[in-house]
Amino acid sequence: EEEEEEEEEEEAPEEEIIFEEVEKVEEIDLTEIEINKTYTEHLTLGNKLFNQRYYRAALEEYKAAYKLNQNSITPMIKLAETYLKLNDGRTAQKYFERALETSPENTEIKLGLVRSFLNQRAVERAKDLVWEMDLSYNSVKYYKGIILILYNDPEGAKNLFKQISEASDPPAETKLKEKADKFLNKYLTYSYFTEADPLYLRTLLAQAMTEVQEYSAAVSLLFEIINEKNNYRDAWILLGYSYLNLNKTNDAIDSLLQARELDEKNPKINFYLGLAYAANGENEKAITYLERAKSYGFEPLELVELRLAELYTEQLNFQDAAASYEVVLSKNKSNLSVFSNAIWIYIDYLKKPSRALKIAQEATLAFPNDEIAYNLLGWAHIANEDYADAKIALDNALKINDSYDAIYFNLGLLNEKQGHYLLAKEYYKQAYAMDGSNSIMNLAAERYNNLINIKDTFKADISSDSFPSPLMESPSLPL
């Protein structure tokens, strides 16, 4: 009777794991978002999203926090800062103004309002506000310096930047001093050229503005420079670069094409044009200009190859994508996502697991204490049917971080491949229950459901849905 009961238990249908239908905002995992979060929880999640540069998702959290407590200036300021990141100075201005009504003497809010004016290229309004503020604050001196440059008073700006650089203030202002030093370095460069045109100094200062991410101020200054000298190639390049960082891709393309008419084979111009066309969704043109940048000797080469790899992948041209990733890895092994994407392509699309394994081994050498590297190594061993080595690699990954869901997913794959279906299902359930990335959760659910009532003849598939390649972290634009 006990044996009959056990047989009945084994044959009972298992409950399927239901796929989570989670709306993604800018490809981020939002599974942790719950209904009816508190004010503090909304702010905390908003800050997390903001720090990860998922600004539109952060906006929703800050709006929810603001709705729960409209008397607090914190969500107002957070909303304003996020809108500035999205280059919407007009909306940022409204939230800074609301915050200022609650805290009218708050210097940081006033400076936020100054930045929102500069973002809108309302330089006169920014000047009026800064000139009313207390110059004992280095942050006020800094923005007064930027505005003095826009009003063609570079010496007045230089004096303020020197005061910031030489001040013995707390470490909290270290970044501000670094920014001031970038401007001072441009003055130093200009001093080496005794007969240099003053327009050259203004262009150097515009470049400093791009280096400290004051792109809207740079645009205002560069327009004045180009009005004086329409064939100034470097000014056109800086203008295109600034527009590119402001997500104004059509303006960026127009400016960079102007620069290219003046210097057709300039590698930097062609590189930025490639980036601008890519941002505009014109991938063929993007590839054309990136290839030109490469042929004209753009450095560092890995930046071009990284962008090309992304574009080739979008076009499903995996052979060229893999070749570009290989070049990147030959030059720079500091980005684990490059390893991951290359391994993914070699396993899923080019069907070259042995090459994937070599790259995974290189990843563990470059990242000896990283669970992702060992997880990639385990995945590559599974693809090569090296099951014992796969288990060792995945166990090493667990020792580093036993909270990484992808490890449990690959342990599920490993056991599924070996025919250990009950154990595979347990690992898939564990990967799903960890509430990590959407892709892992859904893949774990899918493979778990596929194993329900599967007989011993089942053969596992580790093709394109086996292990998702993480999103590439694109490096910031060089200048």
Structure description:
- The chain has 479 residues and is mainly α.
- Helices cover 69% and strands 0% of the residues.
- Helix 3 (55-68) runs antiparallel to helix 4 (73-85) and helix 15 runs antiparallel to helix 16.
- The protein is globular, with a radius of gyration of 27 Å.
Based on secondary structure, the structural category is mainly alpha
Q: Give the distance, in angstroms, between the N- and C-terminal Cα atoms.
A: 78 Å
**Inertia-based shape:** globular
User: Which regions are unreliable across 5 or more consecutive residues at pLDDT < 50?
Assistant: 1-35, 456-479
**Topology as a string of helices (H) and strands (E):** HHHHHHHHHHHHHHHHHHHHHHHHH
Largest sheet: none
Radius of gyration: 27 Å
Proportion of strand residues: under 5%
Tell me roughly what share of residues is in helical segments: 55-70%
Mean pLDDT: 88
Number of strands: 0
Count of runs of 4 or more consecutive helical residues: 25
Brief descriptors of the model:
mainly alpha, 25 helices, globular, disordered N terminus, disordered C terminus
Which secondary structure elements does this structure contain, and how are they paired or packed?
Elements: H1 2-11, H2 39-51, H3 55-68, H4 73-85, H5 89-102, H6 107-119, H7 123-130, H8 138-150, H9 154-166, H10 174-191, H11 198-211, H12 215-228, H13 233-245, H14 249-262, H15 267-279, H16 283-295, H17 301-314, H18 318-331, H19 336-348, H20 353-366, H21 371-383, H22 387-400, H23 405-417, H24 421-433, H25 438-451
Helix pairs in contact: 2-3, 3-4, 4-5, 4-6, 5-6, 6-7, 7-8, 8-9, 9-10, 10-11, 11-12, 11-13, 12-13, 13-14, 13-15, 14-15, 15-16, 16-17, 17-18, 18-19, 19-20, 19-21, 20-21, 21-22, 21-23, 22-23, 23-24, 23-25, 24-25
